[in-house]
Each structure stands twice: as structure tokens, then as C-alpha cells.
Amino acid sequence: MTISPARRALRRWIPQQHGAWAMLVVPFLAGGLLGGFTARHALLLPVWLLAYGTAYHAQQYVRLRRLSRNPRAPRRHLAPLAGFGAACAALGAPLAAGRPWLLVAALCAAPFFAVNMFHAYRNNERSLLNGIVAVIPACGMLLVSYRLGSGALDSTVWTATAACLLYFTGTVLYVKTMIRERASRPYRVASAVYHGVAVVAATTMDPWLAPVFTLFFVRAVTLPARGVRVGVVGALEVLCSALLLVSLAALP
């Protein structure tokens, strides 16, 4: 099957990290649902996704410039890097002008971006630590989205953010047991223990979260080493992310 030039260009521009999209969108939606959506959210979402695209291509450029013998390989990321970066700045400027505290939020994410860049430079992007580091600013978007709507932070949003961190950190570990580390018993044990602790932590924060985190624990214990196809793993994670969003949106 011949791929059209437009589709080929789209594939080069859009990051092919399917698991990242739920991590980007769910905290944003949860913050908006809890704090109230405003017109500014319609601008914040594309800025957020463009920032991710910019960071992704920056990391790939750094990685390939160090490792690839083909000088064209890193240069393929320059056009998306410039395009996403310019669009992010253009859309983000009026948003930050109206809410200057957004610049502080962006600065808070910078150290985590630096760690991800370092791992890209070392060609170690798939490390467990790098994945967990990426989770933190992604879940921090819940605070940003919530404050953009409500104007302040309260106990509900901190509970929701902590629950997001618990879930997506566990997802990094769980997905490794299903794909790259599926033959590793230590990884499976670590994932099961983590998800068991997460059930207790989530229940302590709010009993409403107990059922969904119990479900996450069951999937982490029962599915590894069963030969589940990658596509099915991804579909289940989309479903779990949707269940998390529903649970967060219903927090009292």
C-alpha cells in the first residue's frame, strides 16, 4: 500500500508515542471538569499539545545528532521543532499575557524537560526513571487547568492530582511488564506491589477512588505474562484512563 506524501509528512510531524496522549489529555480534562471550563481552555489545550510536540522533536534531534551516522536523520526533526515551537509561542503569548502565572507553571516543568532531554541524549528514553519523570509535569497540567477555571487551588484538586500521579506512574511500570520487560519477574512483582500500595493510598485520599484503583491492581496482577497483544494493551489503557477521568470528575 502506497503512503501519500501528506500522510508521510504527518507521520513525521506527529509523535508516534500513543501512550503519551492519554497522559496529556486526561489531567487537562480532569482539571477543567473539576474547576470549570472557560474560553481560555480552548487555547490552553493546543498550546499544551504543541509544547509536547516541540519537546518530542527537540529530544529526537538531540538523540539522533549524537547517534546517527546519517546527517539527514536529525535534520528531519528541525521543521517540526520550529513549526510546533513557533505555533506554541504564538498561541501561548496571549494566554500568558492574561494569566502571567502560567509562565511560572512552565518554568516549574523545565527541570523535568531537562531530565528527559538528558535521557534522549543518552539514548535511554525508555528507562523507568525517564518515564516517571515525564509523568510529573503531565499530571501537573491538572493543577493548571483547574486553576484556569476556578482561580484557586483547593483540597479536591490536590487529591485529583495525586490520584493522577499514582495511576500514570503505575502505568509506566505496568506497560513495561506487558511489553519490554514481559519476561522479567522482578518487574512484575514490583508492579503488583506498587499497585497494591496505590489502592491503599487512593482509598486513604478518597474512598470514591477505591473501586477504580482496585481494578488497576487486578489488571497489573493478572495480565502480565499472558501474551496480550500490544494493540489490546493500548486499548485497555485507554479504557482505564477513561475510567480514571470519570472517577476524578466525580470527586466531591
Automatic annotation (TrEMBL):
Keyword Transmembrane: yes
Pfam families given in the database record: YwiC
Keyword annotations of the record: Membrane, Transmembrane, Transmembrane helix
Residue ranges crossing the lipid bilayer per the database entry: 20-37, 43-58, 78-95, 101-121, 128-149, 155-175, 187-210, 230-251
InterPro entries the UniProt entry points to: YwiC
Protein name from the UniProt record: YwiC-like family protein
Organism of this sequence: Streptomyces kasugaensis
